[in-house]
Amino acid sequence: MSLFRDDGIVLRTQKLGEADRIITLLTRGHGRVRAVARGVRRTKSKFGARLEPFSHVDVQFYARGSELVGRGLPLCTQSETIAAYGGGIVTDYARYTAGTAMLETAERFTDHEGEPAVQQYLLLVGGLRTLARGEHAPHLVLDAFLLRSLAVNGYAPSFDSCARCGMPGPNRFFSVASGGVICGECRVPGSVVPSSEAIGLLSALLTGDWETADACEARHAREGSGLVTAYLHWHLERGLRSLRYVEQ
User: Fold this and answer.
1) Closest by CA position to 206, among listed 175, 160, 138, 137
2) Which residues contact 21 (CB under 8 A, 6 or more apart)?
3) ∠ CA 101-221-124 to the nearest 5 degrees?
4) What is the pLDDT of residue 65?
5) % the chain with pLDDT above 70
6) What is the signed CA dihedral for 219, 222, 224, 229, rounded to 10 degrees?
């Protein structure tokens, strides 16, 4: 029997029995972890209130054996709130749907439990903090998070040089299968011709140029979101259920 301590973001919860829950977290040191939290569905449980989606928590786990992720689910025996991002997210529809899509994306990019994914974890913490504070439009925060998640997992799209031959940009065409913008010589069936403003917006979101991103027109933001969604779905090989509810 071993004790483990880590901090993480609660991604989702599932009912277990009459009073328990299975909590899925993305942790700093152990990646995605599922654990049983006993008694948290009782109305008087303060412990359960800390283990809701969007919560950033310091958690203690009790596991059989020397590894946190093993043959059985560990027990979540203690938690302390680091930041309750849900308070600034769940009361606003646009923030809530964007945040839900971020949680689902983080879970999808951490397929294997127990494998550290520090960059994805830090991206999620920063994204939820920005979303909860209302510093930028929720759909822009979401698109920035999706693009950066793709990048840290090895799927960074090109928005300047041709993704196939490296020809310096700007390049007119965009192909999700090719990895971003491509030149006329490398154009493939299914390529689209997005506006330069939409490509500029996506480049700004990927690099953190919020001054440019915040100044974009709504029509270019919608166009950019469509490209991000198509690119994400291509690499995940199936869509995110939560994206259909996101306001653009």
Assistant:
1) 160
2) 13, 14, 15, 36, 37, 40, 41, 48, 51
3) 30
4) 74
5) 97
6) -170
